[in-house]
Amino acid sequence: MSLVPYVPTPESIIKKILQLANVTSDDVVYDLGCGDGRVVITAAKYFGAKAKGIEIRRDLVEEARQRVAKEGLQDKVEIIEGDIRSTPIHDATVVYMYLLTSVNEKLKTKLQSELKPGTRIISLDFEIPGWNPVKRVHIWDGYRYRSVYFYVIGKSDK
Q: In this structure, are residues 54 and 29 in contact, taking their beta carbons and an 8 Å threshold?
């Protein structure tokens, strides 16, 4: 069962968000609820990162895998069919989320227990309740300003 409706991150802001998070080829980027794979594809294609998307909806998993193959990024991008609450994310150095505040709240324990100190977390539009972002940026997506919250394990969650 999906925790949130499928609303894709606007293509117009993905690169900017990943730049602001200082994503590099040394990173392993996870997108929790990756939808059609656009964030992980961008992370791999433009930043050289290894990227993993987790998606529960089979139709979106198939679409994301087709997009990865079309881009020839099978060696850099993995699309995992699974529930974001139970799929391990231990190797992440960057985690991207476009979920809901209530879902972010439920994921706090998972993020704290599985991620190493220094891991960066990016949340579009929705805060992680009780955590202090290291920065908050407003980005114009072509229609409206979006809030992007940046967190760091070991700093934001104290």
A: no
Provide the domain count of the chain.
1
Would 86 be classed as within a structural domain?
Answer: yes
Does the residue 158 lie in any domain? Answer: no
As given in the structure block, the two tokens for residue 104 are 């972010």
Question: How far is 93 from 95, CA to CA, in rounded Å?
Answer: 7
Residue 4 counted as domain residue? no
Q: What is the CATH number of the domain that holds 126?
A: 3.40.50.150
Task: Give the 3-state secondary structure of residue 110.
Answer: helix
Question: Is residue 103 situated within a structural domain?
Answer: yes
pLDDT tens digit at each of 158 positions of the chain = 677 889 999 999 999 999 999 999 999 999 999 999 999 999 999 999 999 999 999 999 999 999 999 999 999 999 999 999 999 999 999 999 999 999 999 999 999 999 999 999 999 999 999 999 999 999 999 999 999 999 999 999 98
State the virtual CA torsion across 153, 128, 103, 6 in degrees, nearest 10.
Answer: -100
Query: Alpha-carbon distance 88 to 111, whole Å?
Result: 10
